[in-house]
Amino acid sequence: MYCYEHEDIETTKTCEECGVGLCNECESKTIFKTNKKALCRRCNLFWANDNARIFKTKYETNKLAIIIYTVSFLTGILVCAIIELFFLSGMNSVIGLFIIWGIGSLICEYITKIKISDNTGENIVNKIINMIFNFFIRALFIPVFLIFLILDNKRLKKEITENNEILKKLNA
Ligand SMILES: [Zn+2]
Ligand SMILES: [Zn+2]
Question: How far apart are CA 78 and CA 72, in angstroms?
Answer without folding.
Answer: 10
